[in-house]
Amino acid sequence: xxxxxxxxxxxxxxxxxxxxxxxxxxxMDSLGRxxxxxxxDDGSTDGSSEILDEIASKPGxxxxxxxxxxxxxxxxxxxxxxxxxxxxxVITLDADLQNDPSDIPILLEKLEEGxxxxxxxxxxxxxxFVNRTLPSIVANWLISKVTGVYLxxxxxxxxxxxxxxxEHLTLYGELHRFxxxxxxxxxxxxxxxxxxxxxxxxxxxxxxxxRVFKVLVDLIVVVFLLKYSTRPFRLFGSGGLISFTxxxxxxxxxxxxxxxxGAQIGHRPLLLxxxxxxxxxxxxxxxxxxxxxxxxxxxxxQGKLPYVMSYVVSEGTTIKANGGA
Length: 325
Ligand code: UDP
Ligand code: MG
Known about the structure:
Layout: E1 4-10, H1 14-31, E2 35-41, H2 48-57, E3 63-67, H3 74-84, E4 89-92, H4 104-112, E5 117-122, H5 129-147, E6 159-162, H6 163-167, H7 179-185, E7 190-195, H8 210-228, H9 232-261, H10 269-301, E8 311-314, E9 317-320
Helix pairs in contact: 1-2, 5-8, 9-10
The site of uridine-5'-diphosphate has 16 residues, from strand 1 and helix 3.
């Protein structure tokens, strides 16, 4: 069993792969620990697949390649890599040589200090300012504020994780960048350290400015997951209750006017608003109840627990406990 697993998402990176492998192998060999390298070929069409297979076919390469049938995206590739990995520690990095494999030992040292995630921070980022670095600064500030987990650089792929952290989280959409926030929510200790960043020399970046919007939409999902995924009725129910109460009070007021003063209320805009708010209130509450049922199906069907245990001590023996959201 390897101690360390390196997971690398690859999409059309043919000029980078050999050099990446050579440099990575050099660093990993120098650590003197058992390791494996997992490349996830995310539907490459430029010949990267063949190069990866060739690298993996050499005896003693310690390389596994997972091939996707088509391009499913970096998050899906990372998830597949996590599932394939067996090491106690999982390290992720980009295939384009923008991350430097020689930072891995520093990350591992930090992890040894008792953290569960060590995240790279591209302090001197070598990407275009206006459409890359600037949106990233704003996005990181927003994500930090909203999730309460303060990092300068959520987007840096160079990170290392303890196995338990990646085990319980399934990744969708562009969610891989939110792993530190999601993991911190289940009790993981997260730390950030500056890492080297190089400009991209071969190949092209796979993302444009549209990524900013995807990340922002995913942030809404993450906030919902973090705050309400175990008790959705708190969100929908309270919204529904407020709306219904407001509508009901308006209806009372109008009824009182009609009954006591004999006022005409049929043409009053307030009547429309009152009916709207009451219906909306009932709708929201019903949605909340449905969400509560769904969440029960989610947890019970998959044997998931809405909490994470750290460990159990029983009559002097400590048992490592697992399971969690
Ligand atoms: N990547 C991937 N699937 C995709 C897009 C990117 O596996 O659909 C990989 C890509 O090969 C690289 C990493 O994800 O290893 C980061 O991509 P890129 O360098 O284009 O992103 P940037 O550094 O510009 O944010
Ligand atoms: Mg890159």
